[in-house]
Amino acid sequence: MPRRTAAVLLACACLVTPGLAACSSDPNSVSNQAKDGSQKNFISGDGSVQVIAPDRRLAPVTLSGTTLDGKSWTSTSARGKPLVVNIWASWCPPCQAEAPAIKAVADKAEFAGTVAWVGLNQRESPQTALAQVQAWGVTFPNLADDGGIALQQLQGRARAMPSTLVLDPQGRIAAFVGGPVSEATLTGMIEDVLAEGPGT
């Protein structure tokens, strides 16, 4: 396992796997959020990174939809390079908090032409979402809310808001974060997938 992501994983106290419940003491669980009365209307993750070894990855993910400016987009256009998928909404405070980190990594010169990006906006109008990405200065495609259809293609790996996933060049989920991601963490996730090469 790459040293960068191994170090992050060792710091994680509890990892959530599809089909298993989160730790009962997790303050970000749905039940605990319901009890605290905050009515945030989203599951806030703790930012833990999960990495999936190449031989444990599931089938390639195919995402498609309409961008905030009305164009068709599909993840098959990104095959052959890593694809970063960010799930967000302007009404989500952790999404607002992580936005500068997402933009900073997307703008890195070393990733230009070698990494693809897409955002999945949730539960707001395309007009509201487009105004927000313009305010953030984000230039990569963002898909309009489709009622959760795209999320269903992410194999249960995007349960928190925000969530960020890195798909390998074949379109398989290689790593993901539930909750806000830092610039250093996201950079490391992408570098690890790039280091695997295109045919892993």
Q: What's this model, at a glance?
A:
By secondary structure, the chain is α/β, with parallel strands linked by helices.
What labels would you give this structure?
200 residues, alpha/beta, two-stranded antiparallel ribbon, 6 helices, 18% strand
Q: How would you describe this structure to a colleague?
A:
This protein is an alpha/beta fold and 200 residues long. The protein has a single domain, classed as Glutaredoxin (3-Layer(aba) Sandwich). Helices cover 29% and strands 18% of the residues. The protein is built from 6 helices and 8 strands. Strands 1-8-7-4-5-6 form a 6-stranded mixed β-sheet. Strand 7 and strand 8 form a beta hairpin. Helix 3 crosses helix 6 (183-196). The longest helix is centred in the middle third of the chain and has 14 residues, at 93-106. It is globular and about 40 Å long. Mean pLDDT is 83; it is low at 5-42.
Total number of helices? 6
Oligomer description: single chain
Within the CATH hierarchy, at the fold level, what is the topology? Glutaredoxin
Strand fraction equals 15-25%
Tally of DSSP β-strands: 8
Helix content: 25-40%
Q: Which homologous superfamily in CATH is the superfamily? A: Glutaredoxin
Radius of gyration: 16 Å
Q: From the helix content, strand content and strand pairing, which structural class follows?
A: alpha/beta
CATH top-level class = Alpha Beta
Total tally of structural domains: 1
Largest sheet: 6 strands, mixed
Would you identify the regions where 5 or more consecutive residues have pLDDT less than 50?
Answer: 5-42
Return the string of H and E elements.
HHEEEEHEHEHEEH
Shape: globular
Q: Tell me the span between the first and last alpha carbons.
A: 14 Å
Which strand order does the major sheet show? 1-8-7-4-5-6
Mean pLDDT: 83
- CATH architecture annotation: 3-Layer(aba) Sandwich
